[in-house]
Amino acid sequence: MRRGVTATMVVAGILLMIIGYFGAAPWGADTVANSDPRITLAPTLFVLGVIVVFSAAIVYELLPDRERR
Fold first, then answer.
1. Residue 33, SS3?
2. Alpha helices in the chain (DSSP H)
3. Structural Rg of the chain based on CA atoms
4. Tens digit of pLDDT for each residue in 8-53?
5. CB contact at 8 A, 43 and 24
6. pTM score, two decimals?
7. Could you tell me which of 54, 63, 62 has the C-alpha nearest to residue 9?
8. What is the largest CA-CA distance in the chain?
9. Contact 23, 17 (CB under 8 A)
């Protein structure tokens, strides 16, 4: 169970980082006036993704392992 939860958290964190990275500023902006972020909170999404990926290690260590027979 803990591997599945950890893998889900890592994938969700990476997706948040990708969305935050590519939503931060438009590619090929010719002036400063055109360099507003496409997504308003894109840097926040990127940082949240980093936090989720690093907290996946904490979740992996704190969740109990399934008992093996």
1. helix
2. 2-22, 42-62
3. 17
4. 999 999 999 999 998 887 777 677 777 777 788 999 999 999 999 9
5. yes
6. 0.80
7. 54
8. 65
9. no
Report the residue count for the chain. Answer: 69
Query: b/e per residue, 12-42, with b = 16+ CB within 10 A?
Result: ebeebbebbeebbbeeeeeeeeeeeeeeeeb
Query: How far apart, in Å, do the first and last CA atoms of the chain sit?
Result: 16
What is the DSSP secondary structure assignment for residue 67, as one 8-state letter?
A: P
C-alpha span between 20 and 50 (Å, rounded): 10
Statement: residue 68 has pLDDT above 70: no
User: For residues 49 and 3, is the Cβ–Cβ distance under 8 A?
Assistant: no
